[in-house]
Amino acid sequence: MEDHSLKLLGGVTDKRCTHVTGPAPTMRVSGFLLFGGVTIRELPQAAASPAS
Predict the structure, then answer these.
(1) Where are the beta strands (DSSP E) in the chain?
(2) Measuring CA to CA, which residue among 2, 5, 3 is closest to residue 36?
(3) Which residues lie closer than 8 Å to 14 by C-beta, 6 or more apart?
(4) Measuring CA to CA, which residue among 24, 15, 13 is closest to residue 42?
(5) pLDDT of the residue at 8
């Protein structure tokens, strides 16, 4: 994850598991955070897999 954001009384929190096998895409966070923040988390496994 690359964080290129400007934060003022806020922040970026990454709550994902970091167990990645093989190459993975890079997540880039950019923007302006004023009095707030961003939380990055994983989807539950049931929601992440397509329904059959």
Answers:
(1) 2-8, 11-14, 28-34, 37-40
(2) 5
(3) 1, 40
(4) 15
(5) 93
pLDDT score, position 35: 92
DSSP element (H, E) containing 46:
helix 45-48
Q: What is the pLDDT along the chain (52 residues), one digit of tens a residue?
A: 888 999 999 888 888 877 667 787 888 889 999 998 889 888 877 655 565 5
Contact 12, 33 (CB under 8 A): yes
> Backbone dihedral region of 15: left (phi > 0), alpha (psi from -120 to 50 degrees) or beta?
alpha
